[in-house]
Each structure stands twice: as structure tokens, then as C-alpha cells.
Amino acid sequence: MRSFRQRTTRWLGLGLALALVLAACGNGEEADTADPDPDTDTTEEADPDEDEDETEDAAPDAGPFTIGVSNGFTASEWRTQMIANLEEAVAEYQDQGLIDELIIENDDVDEAGQIEQIRNLVNAGVDAIIINPNSPDALNAAFDEAAAEGVLIYAVDQAVTSESVTNVVIDQGQWAQISAEWLADQVGEGAEIVMVNGIAGHPANEARVGGAMSVFEDANIEVLANTNADWSQAEGQSVMQELLSQYGDQIDGVWAQDGVAEGVLRALIDADRLDLVTTGEARAGYLRLWEENDVDTIGVINPPGVAVTALRVALMELQGEQIDESQLTDGNTLLLPLPDSFTNATLDEALERAEGEPDGYSLDVMLSEDEVAQFFQ
Amino acid sequence: MKTPTLPPTTTLLRDARTWLLQGRLPITTAIALLLATLFANLVVADNFLTAFNIRSIFANVIPLAAVAVGQTVIVLGRGIDLSIGVIATLSSVVTVSVVEPWGLPAALLAGLATGAACGLVNGLLVAIVRLQPIVATFATSFVWAGLALYVLPPGTAAAPRMPDVIVLGYRDTLLGIPNAAWLLLLIGLSWLVLKRTRLLRHVYAVGGDEQAAFATGVRVARVQVLTYVIGGAYAAIGSFAMLANSGSADALAGGGLTLASIAALVIGGTRLSGGAGGAGGTIIGVLVLQLLTSLLVALRPPTDVRQLIDGLLVILALALAGLWSGRRRGR
Fold first, then answer.
1. What pLDDT does A57 receive?
2. Is residue B204 part of a domain?
3. DSSP element (H, E) containing A126
4. Under an 8 A CB cutoff, do A29 and B307 touch?
5. A33, closest residue in chain B (CA to CA)
6. Confidence band (pLDDT; 50, 70, 90) for A23?
């Protein structure tokens, strides 16, 4: 018994020793590999190797660059469209020889999982990361870690607090206020409403709820229930059904975020409660349902193309351009112009833009290279 | 393989053979798997030996390592805890919720107490109420998850965070070695200490043959309860690493650790029916799982098939690890 234990102990010791040796020898290379400042990376002159596929030694000013994408929530058409947009844009840049590879980490993950995504991308040698973050601050340490490795990071759709990251976003709070103000006008002072939101804790969701709530407070509108439907139309429909059975007699309207609004509208149509005012989204399915049922509502655009805008910002920074400081809000945020929203007066135009697209398609906006260049010095 | 008499061969060979047949085949297989996955990573991933990657691997591995060592203690005593990953979740939300008002040491103690208390409940249900471990702990996993949501509802606007010193320290190095690697060493050492206690001898006895252990005066129920308490405490230690890794807690995270912990201990050569194996092998199993993941990342399959490939690789590793025990038992 004793020798058995001793031997196992030895094996365990061996394993741990191996692990530590590995750890130590990996660390020894730190001085060579870590480059805290990407802009001063001019090591290419020492490199005689000029193969195109030799990405790690490519000149930082001309590319080709490797771009990483981290997306931590997949169960929404919006995210799918965001990724598809990126793939399409990258294909064009690949033809131009500016990007050599797009590495996508796309999975339903928690915060720890998204930290792992970021680490995987850094480890794969990307020059820039475009991330749709699951948390405004829980990823900060991973961002700092990536920035220390010389990777440029851009948060899209939702802003993060880390100074290592440039946010390329629309102001989600203001975005929410557009439809909140419209709803407040429709239902009037003293009215009672319910809210159907996305995923609690996601930065965009929190900013939107905050923006909408401030409007409702000012207009003296009471929010009876603040619910979440995970940015899923099916969930939105069932949440709205429950809300109708609980608050149906009391409420005058519904404030629904994009991603759940079509489900909410379906629930209202099924229950024959189109007397309730609801806000909506500029997505193909919603717009068509809106027209068929002759609803009075508003559709706001939340463009998945924001990721392509961020890609263009990244490419300019990678090529050595500097963002004009005066364009930044809070030191690290590029606020993109809010796209137009649609009401009954402009529904036809919206329907035209959605023609032939699947129900989940969001009317989209992405800034051109020239428009992005205006953010730079 | 069961030839009773050996042809006279060199003593060295015979010794090696006896040694292997005395129960070292599983751990030897685990080490072979570790070397194989290590080698595969070195070949496939050109960035494998960078400081960044080594640090990442250790940072990722600690939560599972701690939880899996805890699970091993439970399994050795013929139990299993299907709530252990969620215990880590509950412990992490408790710790992060009180770290601001109570200070770090008290918060860590609160987390540890939470883990141990959950383990105590599981242990009592299994050993005293005599519920099937799988059923009892599967049920309690929902209780822990519910409590975690109650303590820290997701989407709290200003979610509490761990102090920076913890988050930054977790990624730092000491004497050129990542702090997370030191933590792994500590977890390993804690097992070596634990293993020398009388309690663990009794755990092995209970796991090997409950009746016989009882007959020789081992207080079986008490021993089993304590395995769950120890398991819960290790889950709490894993939760501290989760907190250090992300700086904040997520009441919905951690559930995946449960099955991974079982996979790790099986790869590491611990018998699921109890009584044989040890946490040293489990730690190797955890490293194998992590190296499989990083191999997969380096190979870069599309992310939507990654989970599938990951699952297949784990099954392969489990099958390889189980080859010997299966053969022995199938006799």
C-alpha cells in the first residue's frame, strides 16, 4: 500500500513538474513575442522572408492583416446577419490583398467563454478583434491582456468600459428613446405600459432600458412590468401572451425592443388586441406583418452592418491612421449616426428595402470607407 | 493477460508488468494521453509555446481542476455529484456579492462555507436519507441554481466585481511561472496532503467495498457525507478561480463543469464505481481536456461544428482511458 502511494505520488509530481517546466519555458519567450505597442512595430526590415502567407512578419502598414471576430450569442438573426456582413466585406478586402484571414469565434458562451474566445483569437495571431461583448466590464482584463499583445480591439453593437477598446456603436440609449418617445406620444400622460426587452445584463439591453425608462419617467408613464425575451421572436410572443393575461385589462401599450417585436405583434394579433400601441423593429417580418394588419406602429433600425463599419475603422488604424480625438465620446467611443426610423408615412419605403429578404432580415446601414475616413485625422 | 505463470524472463520486464497490472495501467494511459495531446499541440499550433498561450491554458484550467479534484474524492467514496458545477456557481455569486462590504478574506470564507454547506446537504441526502446519488444531486443542482439566481439576478445593472488585485494577479507570473500554474500545483499538493489522512483511507475502503469497510468499523455514512463536503469545498475553490478569471460572477455559468469533471476523472483513471484512482490522475485528465480544446482551436474548424468535434475527441479520450478497466472487468 505504501509503495503504491509513493509511486502514484511520483507520477503526480512528474506531471506537475512537466507542467511547470512547460509554463516556465513558455514564459521565457515573453520578451520576444510580447509587443506592448503595435504602432512601433517595425521589425519587418530584419525579416528577409517576404512570402505573402507569412502573416506574423507582414509590414504593419500595408497588410495583409488577420482579423478576429468574437461573438458570444448566436441565437438571433441579427447576429447571423452581422457575421454574414463581415464575411462578405472581408471577402472584398481579401481580393484587394488587405486581409489575409478572418477568424471567427461564434458560440453561445458566458463571460468566461468569451474571455476564452478573446484568448483564442490573440493566440491565433490576429491583428485586430471585432467583438460583440456579452458584458460591459467583465471582459476588461482579457481586453488589457490582448492589447498588451499588440492587438487592436473594437466593440460593436454594445459598448464596453475598457480603455484598451474602441467602441464602434450607435447610442443604444438614444436609439431606445426614439421609439419610447413615439410610444409616449401615442398613449399619453399617466398611461400604463409593459416592456419586453432582450437579455438582462447585456450592455445594449441595459442602455436601452435606461434610455426608454427616462422617457417614460418624464412623460409620467407607469411601467407595470419589465420583462425579458432573450431577443427571440418566439420568446417575445410567449412573454407577450403572459403579459396580456396578467395586465391585459390595465395597459395602454407595449414597448418592445428589436428582436422581440415581431413576436409581440403576433401575440397582439392572435389575441385581437391591436388596440394596444406597440413599438417595433425595422425587420422584414415585422414590416410585412405591420402592413398586412394595418397597425399604427414605429420601426427603428438597429444596423447589423455596424460590424463592417468597425472593420473599416480597424483597417484604417492598422494602416497607421489616427482617429480624430474630437470624434470620440467618453474617450473611446465612436458614436455612429442613428439610422432613420419608419412610421406609417414611410412604411412603403421600408417594405421596398426589405423586399425578397427573409423575415429575420434587419434593414441595414454600414458606413462607406469615405464616411469612416471622416472619423480620422 | 491472465496467464498465472510467467515464462522466466528478465526481472526488469516482469517487474514492469507486475507494476502495471497492480492498477497503474489507467494512470499510465492518462500520462500517455497527456503526452500525445501535448505533442499534437506542439505540431499543429505554432503559437503553442508562447507565454500568452501557456498563461491562457493555466488560467482556463484551474476552475475545472479544482472542481474535478472535488468530484474525484466523492467518486472514490462510491458517490457522484451532478450538482458540483452549480455549487461552484452559487459559491462564486455569494463570494462576489459580499466582497465589497465584508472584504476579501471574509468573502472567500463565505464562498468556501457555501460550497461546503451545499456538499453537506448532498451528503446527508445520499448517506442518511439514502437517495441515489445521481438523482439526489441532480435535483439539488436546480436548488443551487435557483439560489444563485436569487443571490445575484442576472442583469443587475451594477454587478459586483472582484477587486482588481485578484483579477490581475491571476494573470501575473511569479518566478517566471504563471500564478495559475502555481495554483494548480497547490491544488495537487492539497490532494497529496488529503490523501495521507485517515479519512481518505476510509474513503478508499468505502469505495472499494462498503460492507467490508463497515465490518471493519469504518463509519460509512459519516465518511460519505464528508466526501461531499470536501467536494463542495473544492468546488468553492474552483469558483474563486472563475471569479479571478472574469472578475465577476454569472449566475448562469458553471454548469458545464460538472460533466467535464467526470470526464476528467475517468480519463485520469479513477474508477466510476469508486475505490480506485486518485486526483493526481484527474489533474492530468483536466490537462488532457484543455489540450484537446486548444488543439481544436488551433485546427480552426468552423465554430458551429467545434462542439461536435470536441465531444467526439472527449469520447475518444474516454474510450482510450477506459480500455484497461473495461477489459479487466469484462473478464
1. 44
2. yes
3. none
4. no
5. B50
6. low
According to the model, what pLDDT value does residue A314 have?
A: 93
List all residues of chain B from 25 to 84 with a beta carbon under 8 Å from chain A: 27, 31, 34, 38, 45, 47, 49-56, 58-60, 63
Class of domain A172-300: alpha beta
A chain contacts of residue B192, beta-carbon cutoff 8 Å: 9, 12
Facing B246 at nearest CB: one of A28, A30, A111: A111
B251 lies in some domain: yes
Q: What CATH code is carried by the domain that includes residue B137?
A: 1.10.3470
Given A33, A123, A145, which is nearest B171 (Cβ)?
A145
Contact (CB<8Å) A141/B246: yes
ipTM (interface pTM): 0.70
pLDDT of residue A200: 77
Determine the pLDDT at residue A45.
Answer: 41
Q: CA nearest A14: which of B60, B76, B35, B66? A: B35
Is the CB of A112 less than 8 angstroms away from the CB of B306?
A: no
- Range of weakest confidence among A25-39, A194-208, A228-242, A315-329: A25-39
Q: CA–CA separation, B231 vs B235, rounded Å? A: 6
Cell numbers that stand for B107 in this block: 468573502
CATH for A51-170+304-336, among 3.40.1050.10, 3.40.50.2300, 3.90.25.10, 1.20.58.1370?
A: 3.40.50.2300
The pLDDT tens digits of the residues spanning B243-279 come to 888 877 777 776 788 988 998 998 888 888 888 888 9
In this complex, is the C-beta atom of B219 within 8 Å of any C-beta atom belonging to chain A? no
Bridge partner residues of A166 (DSSP): A154
Which residue bears the cell 426614439?
A178
Residues B319, B61: contact at Cβ < 8 Å? no
